[in-house]
Amino acid sequence: MPRTKKPITEKKPKASSKKRAVVAVDKKNMLFPIWSVKGEKTGRISVPKDVFGAPYNIQLVSQAIRVFRINQQEGSAGTKTRGMVEGSTRKIYRQKGTGRARHGGIRAPIFVGGGIVFGPQPKDIHKNLPKKMKRKALASALSWAAANNKIKIIDGLSELPVKTKAFDQMLKNIQVSNRILFVYSKETESVVRAVRNMRDVTVRPFDSLNTFDVMTHAHTVFAKDALVSFIERYMKK
Q: Measured between alpha carbons, how far is 171 from 158 in angstroms, rounded to an integer?
C-alpha cells in the first residue's frame, strides 16, 4: 500500500502573554500607565503620538548622538609659542667669540622652558544640529523607548522620604534596574538629593532631556509633573 502524505497545516503563532504598557487612544494621543511609589498602577495619562508614537529614524538618532558626543569635548588643548612664554628678550650671550652657535633670546624652542613649535592650539570643534532635527530625534528616541516598554511614569514622589534607601526600594517596586534615567521638574527637585549617589541612576531636568540619554539608558523614569511639563514645552515649539 502506498503511503499517504499528511496534509500540511500552518501553525498559528502563539499569542504573547506580555501586555503592552502603551495603549493607542486615537490618531493623536496614546495612554501611558501611571505607577505609584509602591509599584501599583493608579491610572493612565494621555500623551501625544507626535512625541511618543513617532516612527523610529535610526539615521537621525545616530546623527543627534554623534553631534552630542562631539559637543561634550572641550578642544582646549593648547601650547605656548616663543612669544607667549615668560623670559627676557635680552641676547643671552654675544654674537661672536664664544665658539657656540648664534642665539638671541632664551625663549627659543631649542631651550628648556622655551616655546613650542607647531604645537596644538585651542580650536572650536562644536557642531550644530538644526532645532527641528533635534526635536524629531528626541521624539524618535522616546517613541522607541515607549514601544519597548522602557518608559515609566511615577506619581506620589512627594510622599517618599528624601532618602536613597526609599528611592531604591521604589525603583524595585516598579521593576526597573541598571542604567536608569530619572527625569524631574521643580516640584520633584528634592528627589535629586536621594539619587545623586546611586551608581546606576542619572538625573536630568525635563528641559535638558536629550536623545543620547534616552538611548544609552535601559529605562527612562518620568515624574508625572515632569512629563506634563515636558509635553507642554515640546508642543509649544
A: 15
User: Architecture of 23-73+126-236 per CATH?
Assistant: 3-Layer(aba) Sandwich (3.40)
Q: Is the separation of the CB atoms in 182 and 152 below 8 Å?
A: no
Instruction: Convert 184-200 to b/e letters by CB count within 10 Å (16 or more is b).
Output: bbeebeebeebbeeeee
Domain residue spans of the chain: 23-73+126-236, 75-124
Range list of β-strands (E), the chain: 23-24, 29-35, 41-48, 151-154, 180-184, 201-205, 219-223
Beta-strand relationship, 29-35 and 41-48: antiparallel
Which three three-digit cell numbers place residue 215?
538611548
Name the DSSP class of 6: P
- In angstroms, the CA 42 to CA 107 distance is 73
What the block records as the C-alpha cell of 170 is: 521604589
User: How confident is the model over 133-148, as pLDDT tens digits?
Assistant: 999 999 999 999 999 9
Q: Considering the entire predicted model, what is its pTM?
A: 0.76
Q: Of 68, 34, 91, 5, whose CA–CA distance to 211 is shortest?
A: 68
